[in-house]
Amino acid sequence: MTNIHSRLLAFLCLLITAFPLASQNQLNPLELKVKQAQQELSFSQFSPFEYRSDVSEFPAVKSELAEATLLNLKISTLQNAFKAQPEAITLELPSANGSPVLIDLVRAEPLADDFVVRTSGANGNVVAYQPGLHYRGIVRGKSNSLAAISLFEDELMGMLSTEEDGPSVIGKLEGKKDVYVYYREKDMLAINEFECYTDHPAMKKVDLKKYKPQTSGNNKSVANCVFAYLECDYDMFLENGSVAATVNYMTGLFNMVSALYANETITMQASEIFVWDTADSYPTTSTIDALNAFRTARPTFNGDIAHLVSRGAPANGGVAWLDALCSTYAYGYSYIFSTYQQVPVYSWSVEVITHEMGHNLGSPHTHACAWNGNNTAIDGCGPAAGYSEGCNATVPAKGTIMSYCHLVSGVGIDFNLGFGTQPGDLIRNKITNAPCLSTCVPGCNMTVSVTGTPATNGNNGSATAAPSNGTSPYSYTWSNGGTTASISGLAPGTYNVTVTDNAGCTATGSYTVEDQTPCSQNALTLTIVLDNYPEETSWEITDDAGTVVASSGGTYGSYADGAIVTENICLADGCYTFTIFDVYGDGICCSYGNGSYTLVDDLSGTTLASGGTFGFSEATPFCLPAGGGGGGGGCTYSLINSESFEGGWGIWNDGGSDCRRISSSSYANTGVRSVRLRDNTNSSTTTTDNLDLSNYEELTVAFSYITASMDNSNEDFWLQISLDGGASFTTVEEWNLNDEFVNLQRYNDTVIIAGPFTATTQLRFRCDASGNSDWVYLDDISISGCSTGPNLNPTGDDDKAISAIQTAPAWNIEDFSENTLKLFPNPASSEVSIGYKLSTGTAAKLLVTDLTGKVHLIRKVEDPSGIYKLDISSLRPGYYFVQMKNDTESLTQKLVILR
For residue 455, is it left (φ>0), alpha (ψ between -120 and 50) or beta? Predict the structure, then answer.
């Protein structure tokens, strides 16, 4: 790069170090703002953390920090504050000595009123973004301190600085959603050795006399505002994982940067953030080349200065044109840090961005020969570190933001000293006299709250919007077309409103009209005990066509940890699927709380779905009206056939070379035998004999399966039915990789098939994979039918019919091996004996479930082994599972009830 238009290209090489603090004699602007707010506002107590004493599982904390405090984030407390949006808060940070650190904070606006987010993936168009809450203030009891904290829906990040301790960081440990660390920067043990490009040929010397500042503080307040355009490179996006997370991180950092400027009475706001969510084309070998490419790519931008923020190469500090306001060179580049060995390091990044923007705004380095009215240096940190600009001066006790004192051992940069008198006055003077800047105007602070009433008769709900902090008169625009403050005659649903005041400020709100109309069909009650992350949990019910007929309408983020949610649901007769979701993929039990869910039919008391331990989702089919094993129309379910493949194929048939009955307990659900299907040939099947199912109205096929080596989303397997003796088949259900299953995880599933059926009905499982090494293992396949006629043996083979009910067990519990579960008699009528032996002595639960997973009976069992007699007279005839489970074991056997 050449020396263009006599502008100096200024460059900062940052070294990881501490920033010790010195003292000043007067209140800084942030202190004054807090004291004023304390006279006018009520500060909400905000205690989002719990002290965590054990650091053994976090070796990075022990190896990278000489001293630190680990904290657990209480996500519900954070989300309640995020929802309430208080104007002033007192943040409480627990400490090891029991005396919390109190931080008094006032709401700040680091983002412009018309702030937008754009992305490369959206072709530069605006994308939706939910801003965080940003605060600035002081540490209580610490004179001349400063703090900047940002709250997001599921994260908090911040920095504070005191004269005694220097900068401290509050941030999330990398890879941990609720474990935070609070530490002083001077306790960071790592030193990052950067290369420095001060001697680069592009660093041409120019006459700095025109930058000579006032030697006395004439410019103590600034009326003009500076708006910053920020751009985040692709590496930063990849590291954060999403556009929203990237913008959250960038706005959190910028809140800290703008807090340092606010402490100089300079207002700086972000006008736009552009995120590269596709690969960027910026050079990766030189900061100067990257800056040139950035300027070429953005000849115009939304702001007064433009800054490229990078997490990829080139690293090693930052670079910016000097005194660039209102010119075509108002560009800068900063390489930032997010974490070092899992530990967040915000203050390093705050320093480099603040420093480089200071160059754009007119300030040279403090070791430049440009100061004191006689072209001498303010300090000698540059020469002391080996970066002379032609003159020298005394090395100070502590340096300011535009210095190189971070490169001098034992000196460092003091955030509380800010820019220092001369650089601060110079920057304020440049901003005040910049012809392209305008005066700051108050932002729009209007908010709107929306209240309403439920619909108790189909369409008689209401909603009312109440704006505050605006200028009347107001206008209203509702999503249903309403234009008044209140709307009525509303059907159940969510109604959004936009309120505009007389000054043109807008605010939005919404209200969900609940349906409290008495249910005249099937009334259900869903009870959910939330875990410690209610913001991850949601649910829906779909009908046979896949249409959502009831749902949570989103996650339960506004609920407290461990809260109990009760939902009333009204459904018509028919078959449905209840699905519960967890966005993090760890269910609602039992890593982060003891969550559970139960869906019950109010009339019969039947449990339609229940659980708590699952991954991203768990689906349970059910039919209404409940009872009788799930069949409708008054029919009764009975077992047609159950096959575990331990003694042979039963009614199922070997399809050929790509179908095999194998012996391996790793793939069998019970016993050691299962059926393996592979590839996608005509022999990748197992098919039943002809079954006479003409008397059945509905079938339920229940089975267990596990897959291995399926390697793309096109790999799946099917359940098919033929009504013409196998001449043609229709697919009734399919299971796809990453939709219904992942490899090497066991699943139990059920499929309900509506009739009518014929005397030559066949069922077939078929694999649709890409090769011989792609496998699905099937086991414990049962077929049950719902019939209004007599219970027949549809296989046509008497030796496959259900055996007669036995009368007496012949067990000696001492002969049982561990992990054994036996039933007697089976089939049973009114009572069944359950013999069991667990390997651990913890209490267990005994559950009886039907084919769809509905829990019909549950008992607590204290002894680790024994014989338990269970009354089953209340259960309808049909097919069930008996399960004995504790915290570490789960044993299952099939039970048939006949009468």
Answer: beta
Question: Backbone dihedral region of 557: left (phi > 0), alpha (psi from -120 to 50 degrees) or beta?
Answer: alpha
Grouping H, G, I as helix, E, B as strand and the rest as coil, residue 871 is: strand
To the question of domain 522-625 being in CATH 3.30.420, the answer is: no
User: What is the average per-residue pLDDT within 864-874?
Assistant: 85
d(C-alpha 303, C-alpha 292), whole Å: 18
Which two tokens mark 428?
């304020």
The CATH T-level fold of domain 630-800 is: Jelly Rolls (2.60.120)
Amino acid identity, position 288:
I
Nearest to 159 by CA among 19, 269, 60: 19
H helix or E strand, kind and range, residue 106: strand 101-108
Give 728-774 pLDDT, tens digit per residue: 999 999 998 888 889 888 888 878 888 889 999 999 999 999 888 89
Amino acid at 788: T
Q: What is the model's pLDDT at position 506?
A: 81
* Helix pair angle (346-360, 243-262), 10° resolution: 60
The answer to whether the beta carbons of residues 225 and 269 sit under 8 Å apart is: yes
Q: Give the global pTM.
A: 0.52
10: which strand partners?
Answer: 320
Listed range (247-256, 389-398, 587-596) with the worst mean pLDDT: 587-596
d(CA 399, CA 421): 12
- Over range 310-329, report the average pLDDT: 83
At residue 293, the pLDDT reads 94
State whether residue 33 is helix, strand or coil: helix
The token duo for 430 is: 């440049």
Average pLDDT over residues 582-604: 87
Exposure string of 314-334, with b = 16+ CB inside 10 Å and e = fewer, is: bbbbbbbbbbbbeeebbbbbb
- Asked if residues 396 and 405 have their Cβ atoms less than 8 Å apart, the reply is yes
791-814: pLDDT as tens digits? 444 444 433 333 323 344 667 787
β-bridge mates for residue 822, sequence order: 835
pLDDT at 199: 34
Total length of the chain:
899
Residue bearing tokens 């490899």: 743
Q: Could you give the CA distance from residue 755 to residue 761 in angstroms, rounded to a whole number?
A: 11
**CATH number of the domain at 447-513, out of 3.40.50, 1.20.120, 2.60.40, 2.70.50?**
2.60.40
In CATH terms, the fold of domain 813-897 is Immunoglobulin-like (2.60.40)
User: Given the structure tokens 């397997």, which residue do they identify?
Assistant: 717
Cβ atoms of 719 and 763 within 8 Å: the answer is: yes
Give the pair of three-digit tokens for residue 606: 């039947």
Q: Which long-range contacts (CB under 8 A, 24 or more apart) does 738-747 make?
A: 738/713, 739/713, 741/705, 741/707, 741/710, 742/707, 743/707, 743/708, 743/709, 743/710, 744/706, 744/707, 744/708, 745/706, 746/669, 746/704, 746/705, 746/706, 747/704, 747/705, 747/706
Q: Which two tokens stand for residue 450?
A: 């929306």
Span(s) in the chain for CATH 2.60.120.260: 630-800
Give the span between the Cα atoms of 38 and 795, in whole angstroms: 83
pLDDT given at position 637:
64
Q: How large a percentage of the chain has pLDDT more than 90? A: 39
854 pLDDT band, cuts 50/70/90, is low
DSSP code of residue 220: -
pLDDT in tens, 425-468: 999 999 999 999 987 766 567 888 899 998 887 788 899 999 88
Neighbours of 26 (CB within 10 A): 8
Q: Phi and psi at residue 22, in whole multiples of 5°?
A: -110, -175
pLDDT > 80? residue 636? no
